[in-house]
């Protein structure tokens, strides 16, 4: 009960509102990207401006432009002031834009990633998603906090790692990044007994994997002390 009383609900509410705001911004800009591609915009500058203007709403009939905008020669719509001599988008640039749209939902932060991670059916699939996301992006996604119930699933998914040097390094880096999130201690306290067992099993598997790759891992900064430190942080 003491842990619950330490939670700053006003701060949580503020962070939730910010997450919702960012989520809405993402979908506005993503829709603008799709519209730009469907309309076959001729230049990258036009594509960029459409995305930047995604938050703008069209004027209603009852609305009137200000006096400054009625002045002769004043252009209120940025899309009117377009340079006609800008080079057209190349096929490769268009493909890059499309790839950016397709991959956007895997690189953004917040609840959307957590939802996608949780909906995957197997731990192997979740582990592959974690690997594909990478440690840097995972750090950005969970820099504020780890949502309730997610830490246990991540640890369970990490148990799928193979005893290869690159995967051992990846797992230790993910565990280190997660341990630096805000309210991590409280998150640990809310783990179920089964989830705590996952943490213990993961540390044990790391210990075993370390034995066959000590020299290679030591060169990358992963040693027995690394695992011991992680055990302490995860209280196992």
From TrEMBL:
Q: Which residues are in the Dynein attachment factor N-terminal domain?
A: 7-77
Annotated GO biological processes are:
determination of left/right symmetry; epithelial cilium movement involved in extracellular fluid movement; inner dynein arm assembly
Does Cytoplasm show up as a keyword for this record?
Answer: yes
Instruction: Tell me one Pfam family matched here.
Output: Dynein_attach_N
Family the entry assigns: Belongs to the DNAAF19/PR46b family.
Q: What task does this protein carry out?
A: Dynein-attachment factor required for cilia motility.
The protein's name is Dynein attachment factor N-terminal domain-containing protein
Organism annotation: Homalodisca liturata
């Amino acid at each position: 009960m003491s842990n619950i009383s330490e939670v700053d609900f006003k701060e949580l509410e503020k962070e939730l509102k910010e997450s919702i705001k960012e989520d809405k911004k993402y979908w506005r800009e993503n829709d603008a990207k799709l519209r730009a591609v469907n309309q076959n915009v001729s230049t990258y500058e036009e594509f960029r401006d459409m995305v930047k203007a995604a938050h703008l709403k069209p004027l209603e009939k009852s609305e009137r432009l200000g006096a400054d905008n009625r002045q002769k020669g004043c252009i209120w719509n940025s899309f009117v002031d377009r340079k006609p001599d800008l080079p057209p988008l190349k096929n490769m640039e268009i493909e890059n834009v499309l790839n950016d749209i397709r991959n956007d939902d895997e690189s953004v932060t917040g609840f959307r990633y957590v939802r996608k991670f949780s909906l995957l059916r197997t731990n192997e699939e979740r582990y592959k998603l974690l690997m594909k996301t990478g440690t840097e992006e995972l750090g950005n996604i969970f820099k504020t906090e780890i949502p309730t119930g997610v830490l246990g699933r991540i640890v369970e998914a990490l148990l799928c790692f193979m005893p290869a040097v690159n995967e051992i390094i990846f797992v230790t880096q993910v565990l280190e990044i997660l341990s630096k999130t805000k309210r991590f201690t409280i998150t640990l306290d809310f783990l179920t007994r089964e989830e705590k067992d996952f943490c213990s099993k993961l540390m044990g598997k790391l210990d075993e994997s370390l034995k066959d790759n000590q020299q290679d891992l030591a060169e990358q900064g992963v040693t027995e002390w690394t695992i011991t430190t992680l055990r302490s942080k995860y209280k196992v």
